[in-house]
Amino acid sequence: MLAHLPILQVIVPLMAAPACLILRRPQLVWMFTLLASALAFIISILLLQQVMQTGTISYELGGWSPPWGIEYRIDKLNAFIALIISGVSTVVLLAAQTSIEKEIPQDKHTLFYILYLLSLTGMLGIVTTGDAFNVFVFLEISSLSAYSLIALGRDRRALWASFQYLIMGTIGATFILIGIGLMYQMTGTLNMADLATRLPEVAETRTVTTAYVFFIVGVCLKLALFPLHLWLPNAYAHAPSIVTAFFAATSTKVAAYLLIRFTFSIFGVSFSFTTLPMETLFLGLGLLGIFVASTVAIYQDNIKHVFAYSSVAQIGYMIVGFSMSTNAGLSAMLLHVFNHALMKGALFLALGAVLYRVGSTQLRDFQGLGRQMPLTMAAIVLAGLSLIGVPLTVGFVSKWYLVVAAIEKGWWPVAGLVLLASLLAVVYVWRIVETAYFKAPVVGKELVQEAPMTFLIPVWILVSANVYFGIDTRISVDIATAAAQSLFGVVP
Amino acid sequence: MSMILGLYNYWIVIVLMMIGFYIIIAHGHLIKKIVGLNIFQTSVFIFYISLGKVEGGTAPIWQEGILLYSNPLPHVLILTAIVVGIATTALGLALTIRLKEAYGTIDEDEIQAMDNQAMDNQDKESKPC
Question: Is the confidence metric ipTM above 0.85 for this complex?
Answer without folding.
Answer: yes
